[in-house]
């Protein structure tokens, strides 16, 4: 049998950064679409949207910090 493929220890961190980058791009696209459609939202919906976007930014910051701690 052949030896199992061994990945460098930092491969997971690199993959994590790649995933966060892709998700960050997706978040930016969603933010832009939300801003374009704000005219059709009620004040309560705008408030909810703003809170969700703030929460998403906070979660991303936590993920980035966790990935950087593993360096």
UniProtKB/TrEMBL annotation:
Compartmental location: Gas vesicle
One of the record's GO cellular component terms: gas vesicle
Keywords assigned by UniProt, alphabetized: Gas vesicle
Biological processes, Gene Ontology terms: gas vesicle organization
Superkingdom per UniProt: Bacteria
Record carries keyword Ion transport: no
Database matches in InterPro entries: GvpK
Signal peptide: none
UniProt main location, coarse: other
UniProt-listed PANTHER family: PROTEIN GVPK 1
Family (UniProt): Belongs to the gas vesicle GvpK family.
UniProt name for this protein: Gas vesicle protein K
Organism, as annotated: Amycolatopsis eburnea
């Amino acid at each position: 049998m052949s030896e199992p493929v061994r990945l460098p220890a930092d491969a997971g961190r690199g993959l994590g950064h790649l995933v966060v980058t892709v998700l960050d791009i997706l978040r930016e696209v969603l933010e832009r679409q939300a801003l374009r459609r704000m005219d059709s939202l009620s004040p309560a919906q705008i408030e909810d949207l703003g809170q969700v976007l703030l929460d998403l930014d906070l979660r991303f910051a936590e993920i980035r910090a966790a990935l950087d701690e593993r360096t």
